[in-house]
Every structure is written in C-alpha cells, then in structure tokens.
Design goal:
single chain, 174 residues, alpha+beta, 17% strand
C-alpha cells in the first residue's frame, strides 16, 4: 500500500482537479461465456487525454493502472483491478478530495460499490441489483452499453420477479 502522505499536496490536488474534470468512475458489465456468471463486473477509474505525459504522471503517483492509445488520437488511463482501487485509488482521492459536487457524489458511489464488491456482491444475483441501483445515480445516468433489465435477465432476474421489478422501477422513476 502506498503512503500518500509522501505525495506533495500541490501534485495531489492537481491530479484531483484533473480527474475531476477529465476522469470518470464507472461500473461496467461485460458479457462473458468463460465465467461462472454471465457478466464480468468491474469498477474502473478512467481518464482520457491527448497528452500522454500527464496520464503517465498520474499512473506513477497512483502506482497502478494502464495507459493505452486509442485510434482517435487519445490516450486512455484506467485502473480496473479491484485491489488497486481499494489500495491506491480510494485512499488517494480521500486524501485529495474533489471540489465538484458531481465528482464527490460519483466517488462516494464508487466507494460504496467497491465495498460491496469486496464483500463479493458482484458474485451474487442480489448483489448485482444493489450495484445496479448505485450505478443508476453515477455519471448522471450516463450512456450504458447494456440496459439494467438485460443484465438482470441474464441472471434469471426478470420482470416477473416482483421484488426486482419494484426495485428497478423505483430507481428508474426516482
């Protein structure tokens, strides 16, 4: 585990501001046929930028993550390993908090999801419902590749399940 007390405040707050404006926290679902469950569930911090050097410094100070080049001329930094999120990402941004209310909210939801996943929620059908409910408020609803109902249906949780339907309907309307 890193000792974030050694990160200079000017660097830490610079990266908090940078991620506040250019980054996002996400919970993604990927269809998988090689898993016991129909979806691989992953938390991710990602930041895109045309200048790779800033992303390399962020990677260095977080001591985790990967940098990839996308064909559209943009570099992409991401951390999607749960252990690195717990050990590096969360403590860093707890020490150097975000200023915007939106990013504070998304980070709080991200931390809740990380705690649930540490308890194995992403490996249980009921936990998937909890994660989807939290994800709904993240990134202002955001564009999603897979609809919540499609994800739940793959787990055998369909609209015929009154509890699941009520939970989803309440979050969709509220």
């Amino acid at each position: 585990m890193l000792v974030f007390d050694q990160v200079p405040e000017s660097i830490g707050y610079y990266f908090a501001g940078f991620v506040d404006g250019e980054g996002s926290f996400n919970l993604s679902f990927r269809k998988r046929t090689d898993y016991k469950l129909p979806w691989k569930v992953s938390l991710c911090l990602n930041v895109s930028q045309k200048d790779r050097s800033i992303l390399a410094l962020l990677k260095q100070h977080l001591d985790c993550g990967t940098i990839r080049y996308k064909c559209d001329g943009v570099w992409f930094f991401e951390v999607n390993k749960l252990q690195a999120i717990h050990d590096n990402v969360i403590p860093f941004f707890q020490r150097f908090p975000f200023l915007s209310a939106k990013k504070q909210r998304d980070f709080a939801l991200f931390m809740q999801m990380a705690a649930l996943m540490a308890e194995g929620a992403h490996l249980r059908r009921e936990g998937i419902v909890d994660l989807l409910t939290l994800r709904r408020d993240m990134n202002d609803g955001g564009k999603r590749k897979y609809d919540d109902r499609e994800i739940l249906a793959a787990f055998g949780l369909t609209e015929s399940s009154e509890t699941i339907r009520q939970t989803l309907d309440a979050t969709i309307q509220g």
